[in-house]
Amino acid sequence: MGAGAGSSGGSAFSVRWGESMAGTFETVGVVGLGTMGAGIAEVFARAGLAVTGVEADPAALERGRGHLEGSTGRALARGKLTEAERAEILGRVSFTTSLEDLADADLVIEAIPEVMDYKRALFTDLDRVCKPSAVLATNTSSLSVTAIAATTTRPGRVVGMHFFNPAPVMRLVEVVRTVTTDDGLAGEVADLARRLGKTPVTVGDRAGFVVNRLLLPYLNQAAVLLENGLAGRDDIDAAMRLGAGFPMGPFALLDLIGLDTSYEICEVLFRETRDRRHAPAPILRELVTAGRLGRKSGEGFHRAEEPRSPSPHEKPSAASVAVLGEGAEEFSARLSGAGFKIVDPEGAELVLALSHTPVVERAVRLPHPDRLVGLHLVGDQVAEIASTVLTSPDAARVAHGLLRIIGRTPVPCRDRAEFVVDALLYPYLNDAVRMYESGYASIEDIDTAMKLGCGYPAGPFETLDRLGLETVRDGLRALYAEYREPSFAPAPLLDQLVTAGVRSIRDLAP
Ligand SMILES: NC(=O)c1ccc[n+]([C@@H]2O[C@H](COP(=O)([O-])OP(=O)(O)OC[C@H]3O[C@@H](n4cnc5c(N)ncnc54)[C@H](O)[C@@H]3O)[C@@H](O)[C@H]2O)c1
Question: Per the database record, which ranges form the 3-hydroxyacyl-CoA dehydrogenase NAD binding domain (predicted)?
Answer without folding.
Answer: 27-205
